[in-house]
Amino acid sequence: MSTFVEMFSSPLMQRALIAAVVVGLAAPVMGTYLVQRRLSLLGDGIGHVALTGVAAGWLVGNAMSLTPHDALAIPGAVVAAVIGALAIDVVRARGRTSGDVALALLFYGGIAGGVLIIGLAGGTTANLMGYLFGSIATVSTSDLVQIVILGALVLGVGIGLRPALFAVSHDEEFARSLGLPVRLLNMMIAIVAALTVTVAMRVVGLLLVSAIMILPVAISQQVATSFRATMRLAMGVGVLVCVSGLVITYFRALSPGAVIVCLAIAVYAGVAAVRPLLVNRSRARGAQAAFDPHPDHPDDVLVAGMTEPGTAGGSTATRGTTARE
Amino acid sequence: MSRTRPSPTGATDPTGSTDPVVAVRDLAVDLGGSRILRDISLEVHRGEFVALLGANGSGKSTLVRTLIGVLPPAAGTVRVLGADITRRAGVPWQRIGYVPQRSTATAGVPATVVEVVRSGLLAAGMLRPPRDADARVRRALERVDLADRAHRAVAELSGGQQQRVLIARALARDPEVLLLDEPLAGVDAANQASFARTMAGLREDGVTVLVVLHETGPLAPLISRALVLRHGAIVHDGEPPPAAPGHDHDDHDHLHPHGDSRDEHWAEERAHGGDRPTGDRSAIRITPGGLA
């Protein structure tokens, strides 16, 4: 018990915990939109480009003789991530290059640019390790202020504009027919996703940043039936794994980013294992009329393994076919 | 080619205007470097129920997507409710409804029927649904017989029900003009019948409808005018195909709207200036695409 009191009274741990809560809340919000748009790997692409920004910030800081040298690392990451995110959105919208090729360009260009520029700045790749794998234990008060401001911005846009961002992510063509400013909303999602990457950078590192955006959503969409519930549950899971992972690393000398991501994967596996039981119970509870799209029509096709036509099992088998028409 | 027709229903604009609801002049549309539509001129008047027919690749969907402002014209003008749709600003978006093909929606994250239908209430300058959103969503779902599925995940519904969700999404904004892109595709007979009831209600309400169809099916009695496209040009504008004698909503002929249908034969005949076919509608044939 006293160990926990000691942990929470440590200013370093307090800052780290606040950062973990902000990241746990904010990252899955934008992750929900990215998963909806089938752009789960966008965060990774942005993360790689942000590394170039970190190195560029370092270069500028060095040139200006700032102390510490990486004082401009986060601003540099923000600028590079936003430019990278907008670039990939333009490429995606124009359809000239497929999304995965555009992402590949970001992946390789971002890492290569980062390593090249840190060399020009007189540093070594060792200086980038804290950004690649996270260094939440070294979060300073000024870092925390930047993280909280950016996190609040991400939450404000992601939740405040949810109806419009949902519409454009769910069905872009229909959103255009509504008269919505689709291009602007797409750019907003790209920019806010970039900000999310830079917020999460210090906690889990650029290489794992996408995991904390996507994994909580992957977990919650297994059990939630609505977009709003998926987002809320993902935020809860995000906070849970970020804080739990951080607390574990207080007691064991492990990388917080790696522990957080492994925890999230473990939760995903656990939910995936339990889900069939939950779904079967739910189906057993539901009357046939609640699921059968055509309760008045007898089933005229029998699928191997299904029960008598007209029973709940038969209805389920039919639904499994029709729902993917 | 310029074709203009008076409103067959005699319906008048509540505002007193007799301007066409849709006015297209000398429209050309390019996609992927190819000219998909050419020399399209047409007017649709208030209360008309227009079917857009033609073979696959004739440009039907491209025309509807251009009318709704999703695709840019290469030449010509498109005015909907008096506004140039390509300018976007100034278009009365809230009075226009659109039902895209079902495949346009992504389904990465689950969404309920209500969430999807609510998105139909947004518009330029309205990034959040209005205060009466719940009532309007409920009304729209009642119009498509889906009120009891409001809180189900859309992915759990059958294909026909998913199509009705998309229609409810367009109806939530109470549009004066409704454009639908192949709403019967992949929809079984029971859902087609429900859809036809919804559309009959809209016609009674004076909503102007332009619908892309492979075959008119249960909508045949509602259609006041047919446009037939062939190779990106209008080749027929006028009489709709005749409703099938003894038409029955349970007729399994409708189960495969992409089949070699009677209406496609009719459209082909119109394209070539021939007579209407007199094929036996009741025969069920097995084609490479399935039942037809």
Q: How big is the Rg of chain B?
A: 19 Å
The oligomeric status of these chains comes to: heterodimer
First-residue to last-residue Cα separation of chain A: 56 Å
CATH homologous superfamily placement of the domain at 22-106 and 176-291 in chain B: P-loop containing nucleotide triphosphate hydrolases
Strand content of chain B: 15-25%
Low-confidence region ranges of chain B: 1-13, 246-260, 274-292
CATH superfamily of the largest domain in chain A: ABC transporter involved in vitamin B12 uptake, BtuC
Order of helices and strands of chain A: HHHHHHHHHHHHHHH
Please give the largest β-sheet of chain A: none
Number of strands of chain A: 0
CATH architecture of the largest domain in chain A: Orthogonal Bundle
Task: Give structural attributes.
heterodimer; A: mainly alpha; globular; disordered C terminus; B: 292 residues; alpha/beta; Rossmann fold; six-stranded mixed β-sheet; four-stranded antiparallel β-sheet; 22% strand; disordered N terminus
Written account of the structure:
The complex is a heterodimer of chains A (325) and B (292). Chain A is 75% helix and 0% strand. Chain A is globular, with a radius of gyration of 23 Å. Chain A has 2 domains: 2-209, ABC transporter involved in vitamin B12 uptake, BtuC; 286-322, no CATH class. Chain A has helices at 2-9, 11-36, 42-63, 73-94, 99-120, 129-133, 141-160, 162-170, 172-177, 182-204, 209-220, 227-251, 256-285, 288-291, 312-322. In chain A, α3 (42-63) crosses α10 (182-204). The model of chain A is unreliable at 286-296 and 298-325 (pLDDT under 50). The longest helix of chain A has 30 residues, at 256-285. Chain A contains 15 helices and no strands. By secondary structure, chain A is mainly α. Chain B is α/β, with parallel strands linked by helices. Chain B has a domain at 22-106 and 176-291: Rossmann fold (3-Layer(aba) Sandwich). Chain B is 22% helix and 22% strand. Chain B is built from 6 helices and 12 strands. Chain B has helices at 60-67, 113-118, 133-143, 159-171, 189-204, 262-271, and strands at 22-31, 34-44, 49-54, 75-80, 83-84, 96-99, 177-181, 208-212, 225-230, 233-238, 286-287, 290-291. In chain B, the strands form 3 sheets. Chain B has a 6-stranded mixed beta sheet with strand order 6-7-8-3-9-10, with helices on both faces. In chain B, strands 2-1-4-5 form a 4-stranded antiparallel beta sheet, covered by helices on one side. In chain B, α5 links the parallel β7 (177-181) and β8. Chain B is globular and about 50 Å long. The A-B interface holds A 32, 35-38, 161, 163-164, 166-167, 169-181, 217, 221, 224-228, 230, 291, 293-294, 296-297, 319, 322-323, 325 and B 65, 68-70, 88, 91, 93-94, 96, 98, 100, 104-106, 108-112, 115-116, 118-120, 122-124, 127-129, 151-153, 155-162, 166, 169, 186, 188, 190-191. Chain A: It is a multi-pass membrane protein. Chain A: Its main location: membrane. Chain A: This is Zinc ABC transporter, inner membrane permease protein ZnuB. Chain A: Residues 303-325 are annotated as: Disordered. Chain A: One of its GO terms (cellular component) is ATP-binding cassette (ABC) transporter complex. Chain B: This is Zinc ABC transporter, ATP-binding protein ZnuC.
